[in-house]
Amino acid sequence: MDKRYFTIGMAGHIDHGKTTLTKALTHIDTDRLKEEKERQISIELGFAPLYEDDELQISVIDVPGHERFIRQMIAGVTGIDLVVLVVAADEGVMPQTKEHLDILRFLGVKNGIVAITKIDRVDEEFIELVKDDIFAELTGTVFENAPFVLVDSISGKGIAHLKSLIIESLKDQQMRDAGGAFRLPIDQVFTVKGQGTVVRGTVFEGVVAEGETLTILPKGLIGRVRQIQVHHKQANQAFAGQRTAINLTGISKEDIKRGDVLVSSDHFTVTNTIDVALRIVGDLDYIVKQRMPIKCHIGTAEVMGRIVFFDRNELLAAHDEILCQLRLDEEVVTKRGDRFIIRRPSPQETIGGGWVIDARGEKYRFGEKTVSELEKKKKGTPKERIISALLEEKSLSFTQLIKRAALEEQTLKEKLKDEAFILYNGREYTLQAIVLNIQTEMKERLETFHKEYPLKKGLNKAELFQGLELDYPKGLLEYAADQAVTSALLGRAGQFLFQVDFKPHVPNNWRKRTEHMLENLKIDGMKVEYLSNYLEKAGIPDLLVHDLVRFLEEEELVVSLNDQFYWHGDIFREAVKTLRNGTEDEFTVGEAKDILGLSRKYIIPFLERLDSKQLTKRIENKRRWQ
């Protein structure tokens, strides 16, 4: 996309000529409300197209200057790329001028031009005094080196120069991100007869097109883009940096309010607890106390809440960023890097502002340890933030990572190519280190298990995962186990997992007794006693019997005829060979009895075992060799 889109704002004290200057620049009167014209002040935000060519499109927001309309002023300034600070030559810097400067600083607006208006009302000497006053106020701020332009909106003096300067200032400026997911904080909602619900705002990021389905957060309402307008002209798309009006179908005007956010994806976080880096104004009138009620302006939302400090209980002055938390009464839509303003609700004053460190704040303990953790979170590189999120959650989808790490989609895609990160099951990401930790835990568990139960092959997955599922998702455990088998870190036999160098065995302290028991079993041949008798005579304890018998069966050292009679493995195999050699393809129970010389007490269980091993198949009163 070659064309770039910007929105500039007019800011300054009431009655310093912002609206008149906007009209002189654009030939559009942005005071459209009856009350505004009657009272000659701006109440709502005013918008107008300033300039457009093949490379640039520039819009103007006329921000209300009156103290009572600070809320609308913040909503407008939040989306601007350059500010024209308007100061009347006949009054100079006023209280709202200073407050607007603070707000602009907190919202991160760095590109500015100072327009000294109404120059025809004063002489040149007075203008120089006003310039000195403004320069003193701007010293130490981001507008310290901003150019000054002298204008008179009525006579037109300096207007062409100001417009030219605005255009030149934006030519080299980077526009907002049009590559990420679409986001538009709503600052106006209205209806148009025959069209339905229309929302208006500045596109923060991304691109929106006609026909797209969008979500309104935080409510989660779904609507479709019926029509897009930019400066009252229909458009197929709207881009980051543009003022736009979007006609939505499927949503009524009553369901939307200023402060809601129109988005195209589920990448955005809805939250009421935000970790922030806060700076305060230089001349607070009142002490800011722990958990004091505040009014938070973020995006175009204005919500009540409380400020929570972790290293102090109050402040009146601070030169550095304060890492703290905002706990809001309502949910807002935000992500890392978003700017905010906080104000005291009564008596009203701007306290400060800053940027969002983490939109998913949690409740932390008071103390330096929490501040230290917030500092790490604040300074973290994209890779460090991804690692931090995965260490905390163990496994996250791409969409969840965008929210947790607060990264743009393309940035996250690039970072996830690092070998430190693993995509498993086609949907979830984890860390190579986490997989290795899981595999180490599995190996250690199996080592302990083998020592305690040397007769068993190993643990089935359900048993091995037990307890680990409290810390890791089951799918991640499955992946770690599969990778451990593939890399020969662990072995697998059916449902059992075991250490690769492990073989089931009789414990050394019971080996001789087991061998003695097997010898006696073999001596008795096919006419054995109950197995329990042999175990008892050998002195095998009851606690060992179950595992020992299962081990002997798995090793084919014994074969069970039923739950009471067991033959030595060699005897069983010899009996099968003798019977097969003495019969045709089919044989009866009587024939088997005669060949092996056994009573029904032994022959019936023996033949049933042949059936279960699929060596034979019973057909009515006969059996056929398989």
From TrEMBL:
Organism taxonomic ancestry: Bacteria, Bacillati, Bacillota, Bacilli, Bacillales
Residue intervals of the Tr-type G domain: 3-174
GO (cellular component) term, any one: cytosol
Known role: Translation factor necessary for the incorporation of selenocysteine into proteins. It probably replaces EF-Tu for the insertion of selenocysteine directed by the UGA codon. SelB binds GTP and GDP.
Entry's Gene Ontology BP terms: selenocysteine incorporation
Protein name: Selenocysteine-specific elongation factor
Entry keyword set: Cytoplasm, Elongation factor, GTP-binding, Nucleotide-binding, Protein biosynthesis
Recorded GO MF terms: GTP binding; GTPase activity; RNA binding; translation elongation factor activity
SUPFAM superfamilies: EF-Tu/eEF-1alpha/eIF2-gamma C-terminal domain (SSF50465), P-loop containing nucleoside triphosphate hydrolases (SSF52540), Translation proteins (SSF50447), Winged helix' DNA-binding domain (SSF46785)
Organism listed in the record: Bacillus aquiflavi
Alphabetized Gene3D superfamilies for the sequence: 1.10.10.2770, P-loop containing nucleotide triphosphate hydrolases, Translation factors, Winged helix-like DNA-binding domain superfamily/Winged helix DNA-binding domain
Record Pfam families: Beta-barrel_SelB, GTP_EFTU, GTP_EFTU_D2, WHD_2nd_SelB, WHD_3rd_SelB
Location(s), subcellular: Cytoplasm
